[in-house]
Design goal:
The protein has strands at 18-19, 31-32, 55-56, 69-70. 0% of the residues lie in helices and 8% in strands.
Length: 99
C-alpha cells in the first residue's frame, strides 16, 4: 500500500513463485480498459472478475500490472442551427469541454 489513490505495492521475495492480483471495489462511475489491448502501461491486466493472470516476481519490479480504469465522459451533442442535416450534406462538428 502506498497510501495514494490508484497506487499499490507489496513485497515478496524475488523468484518465490507465481502470484496474481485481485482488484475489488473499483470506484463507482469508472470502467476498466480492455485487457491486454495495446500499451501494457495503459491497458488493463484484469479479467471480468477483477483478477490478473498469474505472474512471477523476478529481480526487477513490474509496474505495468494494473486495473487500467478510467472515468468515461458523456457527450451531449447539440445542433445550433435549425436547418435539417440531409444525406450528402457536409457538416462540421466542433467539440469542447473534454480532455
Amino acid at each position: 500500500d502506498t497510501n495514494e489513490p490508484g497506487y499499490y505495492s507489496f513485497e515478496v521475495c524475488p523468484n518465490s513463485g507465481e502470484y496474481y492480483i485481485v482488484f475489488e471495489d473499483l470506484p463507482n462511475g469508472f470502467e476498466v480498459t480492455g485487457q491486454n489491448t495495446g500499451d501494457d502501461a495503459l491497458d488493463s491486466d484484469i479479467d471480468e472478475n477483477g483478477r490478473t493472470d498469474t505472474f512471477e516476481v523476478l529481480e526487477q519490479d513490474n509496474l505495468t500490472i494494473d486495473a487500467g480504469i478510467f472515468e468515461p465522459c458523456t457527450i451531449d451533442p447539440m445542433v445550433s442551427n435549425v436547418d435539417p442535416i440531409c444525406l450528402g450534406t457536409e457538416v462540421t462538428l466542433t467539440a469542447t469541454g473534454g480532455d
